[in-house]
Amino acid sequence: MFFGEKLLISENNFSSSDLLQYIGILVKESKLQQRRGSINTNYGWLKSRNPMEEVDVGLEKFNNTILKLTSESRAAIAVKLDRLADDSNMLPSDIMTVFAKLLDEEENIQLLERNVKIVKERGKICKTNPKYDARRSSLSFILK
After folding, report:
1. In angstroms, rounded to a whole number, what is the distance separating the alpha carbons of residues 10 and 2?
2. pTM of the predicted protein model
3. Is 78 among the domain residues?
4. Can you tell me whether residue 128 is helix, strand or coil?
5. Cβ atoms 66, 20 nearer than 8 A
6. 3-class secondary structure for 2-51?
7. Please, what is the Cα angle at 23 between 67 and 46, to 5 degrees?
8. 4 lies in a domain?
9. CA torsion sign, 11 to 20 to 36 to 38?
């Protein structure tokens, strides 16, 4: 501590803006690779010297879904996309479709984990022979 100031603890959170920036970079790189592949001369590498222009990728529609995810889920999406992008030369449209599928997959996994957690908190309920308190059993006896 210097002069009474608290040291900032760096958290290892993968924010939604980090994921959106990473997807944007992947799409831009794939567009550059696609352009380089379309040039048939030996000087195609000179074309890549131009700075990467800003291209609207259309990630705004995924923003609400990304905000619902945990940082672990966002990081998992980034890692899976990174592996897929390194293995093959993907087109920008392919990256966006894979990203949408991974986003849905992680959202479903997160919903399942939450449902399992809720069921574990409630405990097991025997549906064939349910346990009722004394008042409940007397009411069911009267109604029969």
Report:
1. 17
2. 0.66
3. yes
4. coil
5. yes
6. CCCCCCCCCCCCCCHHHHHHHHHHHHHHHHHHHHHHHCCCCCHHHHCCCC
7. 160
8. no
9. positive
**Crossing angle of helices 92-122 and 16-38, rounded to 10°:** 150
**Domain around 123:** 16-143
Extract the tokens encoding 56: 């609207």
Query: Each residue's pLDDT tens digit in the chain (144 positions)?
Result: 444 454 444 466 888 888 888 898 888 888 887 777 665 666 656 655 555 555 556 788 888 888 899 889 899 999 999 888 877 778 888 889 999 999 999 999 999 999 999 888 887 766 666 666 555 555 555 555
Number of domains observed in the structure of the chain = 1
Report the alpha-carbon distance of residue 83 to residue 96 in Å, rounded.
15
Residue 1 in domain: no
Per the structure block, which two tokens stand in for 41? 């001369």
Most distant CA atoms of the chain, gap in Å = 92
Residue 9 domain flag: no
